[in-house]
Amino acid sequence: MELTGTILELLRVAEELRLGREGCRLDPSGKPSPYSKALSLIKIRWTSGPVLVSVSSDHEVLEIQGGVAEMKMLAATVGEFATEGDYTSHLHVEYLPDHEFLSHNSEPLVVTLVE
Length: 115
Hints:
By secondary structure, the protein is α/β, with parallel strands linked by helices. It is 26% helix and 28% strand. A hairpin with a 5-residue loop joins β4 and β5.
């Protein structure tokens, strides 16, 4: 799954994660190529433990949940990429053994910066 946005859009997502807000609406009208569908909402929920990234059963919502400290680590990762990445790169947020903040059940997420 891919999360694509401008610098400001990705910084907004990072802020939502950092503050534990309920989430934000996405514009599903874009062409999600090579994917089959664009999601319409990011739903954020503070729980406990590692961050779990998943898609709702109706494939409309990107769901992100996890402990406060772990969510803030994800927020910092996304925010840093938004400000320091470039338009030719992308960020993989995916579980590896002993990952600092992701659950082993988390779906892989690619974050891409657009102009």
